[in-house]
Amino acid sequence: MADIEKTVSILFQGKDTLSGSIKSMEGKLNSFADNAQKVTQPLADIATSILEVNAAMNALLAGGIVLATKKAGEFGDSFAEISTLIDATSQDINKFKGDILDYSNDSVKSLDDINAAVYTAISAGTDYAESLDLTRQAEKLAIASKADLEPTTRLLATTMNAYGVGVDKIQKFSDIFFQTVESGLTTLPELAEHLSMVTGIAANAGVPIETLSAAMATITSKGAPTSQAVTRIKSAIDAIVAPSIMAAKEAKNLRIQFDAEALASKGLEGVLNDVMEATDGNSARLKKLFGTTKAVTGVLDLAGDGGVVFQGILNDMKDATGATDTAYGKMADGFGLANQKLVNNINSTIIKIGDKIIDKYGAVVGALTEAISVIGEGVDSSTFEPIW
């Protein structure tokens, strides 16, 4: 076993106990003293920074420093993308960076997932100061519905934009989407991908999110893919809002009101009920009103059974308040999610340490690399044989 005292003497005190061997690398050892100084001064600076975080971290080894710096660098790069979307002072941006880390400590989603969700929320027009509020509710909905965080955030943000409401209404939209997934055969990622094709026209036509979501759940529950359900609903609403000449004539013959006014006053379910009663569900007459097979198929999906399923799900939508929180409460304490929270707390602490030392890290790495290289060459040339 190597004698530590002798080793230290050789490396840092320059004692001439190995003069015969050292002569072969005299130039390298002369430079090593300078390398040692390069290492010790930055390390002394780092020690001061580490003390500000936690006195126990004074013993942080080189590997820990590398890990902390790596994590801090990765988080910094990810946050830099978010910061490009924010018009604020550097002080406010730095505070927001810290807010994200603090949020992660209570989250059961990874930091990468959180950053992606925050980026999406802000990209969709959410004020950065409210983006974590949106992300927090999106996380509950994602956990409750077993979905990923980013598409869930995107679904909430884009739909609320279409309906012109702010983050203060997010609980309502979250509960409605949870009920949509529960009642229909669709998923949050599928809704995130396709629903925006119809939310704009639905909102402008005065179709509430509860009604739109109930229609989605009804049609998908009967086997239609999410994308087709969106197309059918959109086609039906289009036909009502802007009826063709043939549709207007047919509506007059049937003695029903078939236009945007009827949709606003009676609701989608009311208009469809009038249509089904007047036509007896006859496909040919429905085609004259709605114009396309897609629209007619959607109408029959929603009202062909007398609207029983559609109305039942619509009632569920109205009673969905608190559904997200209830389901989230049942899921959040699972092993995998609890473990992710622990990982987040560890990573958050490591990143905060890394942020303290990252500016000095370059100098340390350079000096350590040179010093270790010299030692390695000495070992290869048997310089240290006398102390083994």
TrEMBL record:
<feature type="domain" description="Phage tail tape measure protein">
    <location>
        <begin position="99"/>
        <end position="291"/>
    </location>
</feature>
<dbReference type="InterPro" id="IPR010090">
    <property type="entry name" value="Phage_tape_meas"/>
</dbReference>
<keyword id="KW-1188">Viral release from host cell</keyword>
<protein>
    <recommendedName>
        <fullName>Phage tail tape measure protein domain-containing protein</fullName>
    </recommendedName>
</protein>
<dbReference type="Pfam" id="PF10145">
    <property type="entry name" value="PhageMin_Tail"/>
</dbReference>
